[in-house]
Fold this protein.
Amino acid sequence: MLIPTMTLPKPNLEDIEICLLLEGVYQYYGYDYRNYAHSSLKRRIHNFMRSEGLANISALQERLLHNRTYLEKFLLSLTVNVTSMFRDPSFYQTFRTQVVPFLQTYPFIRIWHAGCSTGEEVYSMAILLQEEGLYHRCRIYATDTNEKVLQSAKSGIFSLKLMQEYTQLYLKAGGKRSFSEYYTAAYDNAIFRASLRENIVFAQHNLATDSSFNEFNVILCRNVLIYFNHILQQRVHELFFNSLCTFGILGLGRQESIRFTPYEQHFEEIAKGEKLYKKIR
């Protein structure tokens, strides 16, 4: 008697190529994108291939593994750098009214901006802390996996065209001064005051592979976790939990949450809807 065999679905060739590409980049260069959300990663790979005139992913892999300079260009295309100063101003308003009074009880405050991109939100926080009289006893660690965006963040130079929009967001976030006090206009650029960079340390850190490097009073990682798959999200939640001191503050993006993680019971929500949490145990 013949027993019918089950026919397994044939794997998609392009998905296999993407897995091989990401594995090669990780094994050879140490950059780990294997647990990034597959659909958005695939879309960015396709966009990069079109811009480079490459026919298939295998051709991309051959070029990447034999040209370090080309790799840096590719990695920049994978990084999502959509950000702005005082993005979601109600978040900063809540931080100002609900978190700052708590931070004022500490003699020294360590803040980690994880996935800081080009630095707009880092400078936003520096301005807020300066206005609240806390910046002189803060150290902000601004990290990202991409060295090129870190260099951009470190420069503190942004397009002058954006300043009108940023001014409105700053005011909605509870800004107390004239926003133009914080930068100097030079040609088409706005150069932010050097005093805002004094207590910021910019450094490369990969949330997919690197471990904790300090204990923090505040960790901000906004609109980064949405680009990770469930496995990597869980890893990052564990990293943040282990990096926060008791009563430390965790800030996430609007579409992110600690719900359904193993650490949900260890946090309490500070303000409903603003994704600011306090570690209580």
